[in-house]
Amino acid sequence: MLENDNPTIEPPGINPEPPKPPIEHTKKTVTARKADTVDNIQELGTTEVPTAKTNIHVMTIIGQVEGHMILPPQNKTTKYEHIMPQLVAIEQNPDIEGLLLLLNTVGGDVEAGLAIAEMIASMSKPSVSIVLGGGHSIGVPIAVSATYSYIVESATMTIHPIRLTGLVIGAPSSFDYLEKMQDRVNKFVVDHSSVSERKWKELLFKTGELSRDIGTSVIGRDAVSYGIINEIGGLSHAQTKLNQLIKIQKETKGLKQ
Amino acid sequence: MIFWSILPEEYVFSTNNLLDSSPLYEEIQCNNIKLLVEKMGPTQCKISRLLTTNPQDYLLPDIQPGNILTYKPI
Question: What is the DSSP string of A22-74?
């Protein structure tokens, strides 16, 4: 510790010495305090660091959506148990006004993915999603669950039926069961985007588009023209839209009260 | 569980990698921010990912991914 870290003021009269120039004091204390803060963060994780406040929180969904089963370590995953409490916290925190969802996913657990999508869709705060790189399989329902969705021009979304590349573990693998699971996904996507059920099913069961499979790989602009995604755009578009939605929500709230 | 992905099943559920020494990950709380860290020994770990939704947290210089943290007794 520095000598003058915590200077005390002597009672007047006892010490006839004139006080040292105050500039030096302040400098020393500031540097000492700075070092303390950094040490505390690194060692104890205690000191609160003043950070810029933000009213928009961001959630990245990357790799596989992981739900009931822990996937082998070579997979990059987004875990259900991380996302769900974060969504609850965002909904509850009055300082947070909007959610930005960044998607780059290859698929994953259908039920975990649907759960995340339903949670986002049922939030009272506005949300905007951006599909970057790829939003495949279960990424599609998550992308459309946001209030407004964007896709960058280079991104693709693979729309394919569950049963063909889907792996069934510990569930009755009857055709009916898969059919019902597929129906739940279909219904969610059709309800939360402007794609018609006919078009969606056509994309789902199209042959000849994918080498391994039936299904369609939909690229940015096509996703918008089919009505799955609202608009082509990146970060600045999403940010502007989100601010707009927040403003609209504030105004409507004001009217109700 | 029904798994729906564009990645082939044999890739996602391959168990070959279990034989290799894949890094051991752990979730820790540092300065009220949840971090996913790679254990490097009994007292050290390397930050691999931040598990927070606050975008400003990602700018904090002390918890950038790749930084090495040392556990200290309180």
Answer: HHHHHHHHHHHHHHHHHHHHHHT--SPPP----SEEEEEEEEEEE-SSPPPTT
A162/A42 same-domain check: no
What averages of pLDDT result for each successive group of 10 residues across chain A (257 residues)? 51 52 44 51 56 84 90 87 93 93 93 94 95 93 95 93 59 70 92 93 82 80 94 94 93 67
List the single residue in A with minimal CA-CA distance to B35: A82
Asked if residue A193 and residue A124 are part of one domain, the reply reads: yes
A27 and A44 part of one domain: yes
A175-192 and A197-204 helices, crossing angle to 10°: 130
First to last CA, chain A: 56
Q: Show the tokens assigned to A138.
A: 């279960």
Q: Which chain B residues are closer than 8 Å to A165 by Cβ?
A: 4-6, 8-9
Tell whether A256 is covered by a domain.
no
- Out of A137, A145, A149, A193, which one is annotated catalytic? A137
Complex ipTM: 0.84
**CB contact (8 A) between residue A109 and residue B3:** yes
Nearest chain A CA: its distance from B8 CA (Å): 7
Are A180 and A228 contained in the same domain?
yes
Two structure tokens written together for B38: 């790679």
Q: Are residues A32 and A136 in the same domain?
A: no
Question: Are B15 and A72 within 8 A, CB to CB?
Answer: yes
Q: What is the CATH number of the domain that holds A234?
A: 3.90.226.10
Active-site residue flag, A136: no
Count up the domains in chain A and report the number.
2
Q: Which residues contact B64 (CB under 8 A, 6 or more apart)?
A: B47
A137 is catalytic: yes
A-proximal residues of B, 42-71, CB under 8 Å: 51, 53-57, 59-60, 62, 69-70
Residue range B1-59, pLDDT digits in tens: 788 888 887 788 877 655 566 778 889 988 889 999 998 888 899 999 999 999 999 98
In a domain, A97, yes or no: yes
For residue A23, what are the domain limits?
1-51
